[in-house]
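Q: How do we represent a protein-ligand complex in a form that can be generated cell by cell?
A: Start from the inputs.
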Amino acid sequence: MKFTRSTISQLFAMAALAASGAAFAAGNHAGGHGDEGETAIGKPGVAAKASRTITIEMSDKMRFTPSDLTVKKGETVRLIVKNTGQLKHELSLGTQEELMEHLEQMKKFPGMEHDEPGKITLEPGKQGEIVWQFTKAGVVDFACLLPGHYEAGMKGAIKVGRK
Ligand SMILES: [Cu+2]
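Then emit the C-alpha cells for the protein with copper (II) ion bound:
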C-alpha cells in the first residue's frame, strides 16, 4: 500500500472517529458532557452549599415520608434519610428509566448494595444522608428497589422547578 497524503489524512480521520467513539462510551448515562459527574438528575452536592435539609423517613409500610418534594433548579439539598422500620430499606435517586433498569438488576442480584452517589442503603434504625444538587428542571424520581418494596409503593418524586 502506497501512502499518499490523502491516505494519511484518511487514517487520521478514522483515528479521530475512533477516539470520539471511545469518549462517548465513557460518558455518563445522559450521554452529556460529563461536567463533574453531572447526570440527567443532577450531581452530588457539597454539604456546605446546601440551602435546605429535608428529612425523609422510610418505613415498613413501604412508604417514604414525605414522598413528594419540590426544589429549585440549581439548588443543593441535604437529604437526611431515616429508616424507621425493622427491615432494610434504600433510597435511590434516578430517572424513571434508570430506576426501572436498576429494579430488574436487583431482582437478579438481590444482595446488591449501592455505594454510588445518589443512593443509600440503610439497616433498620439507621440514618444517613445524600447531598444532591438538582441541576435540571423536571422530575427526579426516587425509590426503594429492594425486592417487592417498589412494587408495594415505596417511591416518590422530587419536582425541580425552573427557579
Ligand atoms: Cu424499602
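The pocket of copper (II) ion is lined by residues 58, 89, 144, 146, 149, 154 (CB under 6 Å). The two ends are 61 Å apart (CA to CA).
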